[in-house]
Specification:
By secondary structure, this protein is of the alpha+beta class. It folds into 2 domains: about 55 residues, no CATH class; about 110 residues, Cyclophilin, CATH 2.40.100.20. It has 5 helices and 11 strands, in the order H-H-H-H-E-E-H-E-E-E-E-E-E-E-E-E. Helix 1 crosses helix 2. The chain is elongated. It starts with a helix and ends with a strand.
Length: about 170
């Protein structure tokens, strides 16, 4: 755990010596032995660490706030996908949400998010989504009868939706 704490620390230089010193060790030997004996998949380690932090430390950067006037809608970023890791990196931003088709509110993001491996979603009221062909961000308020779409990817979950055609400030909750 001390090695992980060192990696996540604000150290200017992160090499064996500085990480060992940050962990209270006199030399990097202990950490090098640990790393040499461990075999693992870097993606699996990243996913495990992401889940650990999200579940146990409950950091606010996994909650995104959409604000307009006196209205705030909080969205929990629960899944660990390239899209949900990329979307928060675009924050903060202010975007106009507009009515679309009598079922949803949408806006155009400043750039496309990473859709690598996206599998689509079953449409539910209020949950935010990104439309892969165009890179839009939106919320359904009338998803009844729509089912599953391979072109949409869920970006979070919320039980609240009050964004009505206004400029919306989107940022991390922290």
């Amino acid at each position: 755990m001390s090695y992980l704490v060192g990696l996540l620390s604000p150290l200017a230089s992160k090499n064996g010596w500085t990480l060992a010193e940050a962990a209270g060790d006199g030399t990097p030997d202990r950490m090098q032995r640990l790393l040499n004996r461990s075999a693992g998949d870097a993606d699996a380690v990243r996913d495990y660490l992401f889940a650990y932090v999200a579940e146990r430390l409950a950091r606010d950067d996994r909650v995104v706030r959409f604000r307009t006037g006196s209205t705030t809608v909080e969205v929990a970023i629960e899944e660990n996908t390239p899209t949900t890791r990329d979307f928060p990196s675009m924050l903060p931003m202010t975007l106009p949400f507009e009515e679309c088709g009598g079922r949803k509110k949408v806006t155009t993001l400043s750039r496309r998010v990473d859709y690598d491996g996206a599998t689509g979603m079953t449409l539910e009221n209020a949950d935010p989504f990104s439309y892969m062909p165009w890179g839009n961000l939106g919320f359904f308020y009338r998803a009844d009868g729509l089912g599953h779409s391979d072109d949409l990817v869920r970006t979070g979950t919320t039980d609240d939706l009050h964004l009505d055609g206004q400029n919306v400030r989107i940022g991390a909750a922290g």
